[in-house]
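Example (one chain per record):
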Amino acid sequence: MFVSVLGRRSAVVLAAILALPTLVAPVRPAPRFVSIGTHRLDVIQDGQGSLPVVFEAGLGNPLDTWEHVWPSVAAFAPVVVYSRSGLGRSESGPGSHTAREAVKDLRALLLALDVKPPYVLVGASYGGMLARLYTSLYAADVAGLVIVEGVHEQQVQRYGALDGSYPAAFRASFDEQLRKLPAGAEADEIRETMRVQAAGAVDGMKPLPDIPIAVLTSMKSDPSASFVNGTPRGHDAWRAMHDEWVQRSTNGLHIQTARSGHHLQNDEPQLVVDAIRFVRDRLSRSHGA
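Predicted structure:
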């Protein structure tokens, strides 16, 4: 009798399970090549709505650097993720790989994709510098910024004020890296970083406008780091540089974490997603996002 009752219950449970809708993982678009006239860039587009979120990767990094972030953002916003010229699958193109050329290429890409401004730009490390430069050159096209562990053009000079050996050690380290790198975009971006740091300025860079901005800063100390930036004292200087950007905005947020290193988008991707939500929420009333 017990077996008979158990059998009937099992049949009912099985029927209920079969009646449930099948849960299918969302299909993500594959990267595709898009021509910007002189060459093709590798691009992913996803999501719907207004206020597109455009991702700019760090030095030498392809679009994969955002793989833990952009799918979550595409659930509530249109996204554009790409690899700069000569990185990942993107073709190198005829120009040099300077910051100005990178910004020029991004603008050409957004025009080719017919992605309408204004944008929320999200930049990591060197990509944060590019996002700020894009804002300087095309201010009307940028509604908000998210900067993840952004490079500061004066960081070598300011670290040098803490440790006089730092600028020389910095250049020696980068020179060593350049000797090991083959010719190409990544080496060119390192050279550009060195040029910017030596000058302490970026050609065409202006102070940030008063737009919503979120800045994410790693405060995780690294005892094995060769330079002062891996120490608590260096991190205080790093945080202060990032604070300067936040203070330019009446809608600014500074997120600091000691759990993640420089590649914060890999270690704590939800922090980046939350920062993007913060900026878009501040813009939603005026732009109807």
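Caption: Residues 205 and 237 are 21 Å apart (CA to CA).
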